[in-house]
Amino acid sequence: MYVCLCEGVTDGQIRDAIYEGCCSYRDVRASLGVASQCGKCACLAKQVVRETLNEVQSAQSALACSGNFVAA
Fold first, then answer.
1. Which CATH number do you get for residue 42?
2. Exposure pattern of 24-52 as b/e (b: 16+ CB <10 Å)?
3. Distance separating alpha carbons of residues 25 and 2, to the nearest angstrom
4. Is residue 71 in some structural domain?
5. To the nearest 5 percent, what fractions of the chain are helix, strand and coil?
6. 17-25 contacts: CB < 8 A, separation 24 or more?
7. Could you read off the pLDDT of 17-62 as tens digits, one per residue?
């Protein structure tokens, strides 16, 4: 789905930017130009960033926890 019509940025591109190393909305905005024109997409862009960062952090926590289990 398109998040930023002015720059033609999709939610998938925002997620990919985070998977590739962006760690904040500010990083995503600098990388993709989202919300740099009219700004109407800022709330939705921030929501996608927040949700994706939470997913990434949850996945990292799950991986860290799975390494702690020892087979009996």
1. 1.10.10.1100
2. ebeebbebbebbeeeeebbebbbebbeeb
3. 17
4. no
5. 60, 5, 35
6. 18/49, 18/52, 18/53, 18/56, 19/52, 19/56, 22/49, 23/53, 24/49, 24/53, 25/49, 25/50
7. 999 999 999 999 999 999 999 999 999 999 999 999 999 999 888 7
Range of the domain at 15: 2-66
Whether 6 is covered by a domain: the verdict is yes
CA distance 42 to 61: 28
Residue with tokens 């904040």: 24
Q: Domain tally for the chain? A: 1
pTM of the model: 0.84
Going from the C-alpha of 15 to that of each of 21, 52, 72, the distances in angstroms are 10, 6, 39
Which stretch of DSSP H or E encloses residue 10? strand 9-10
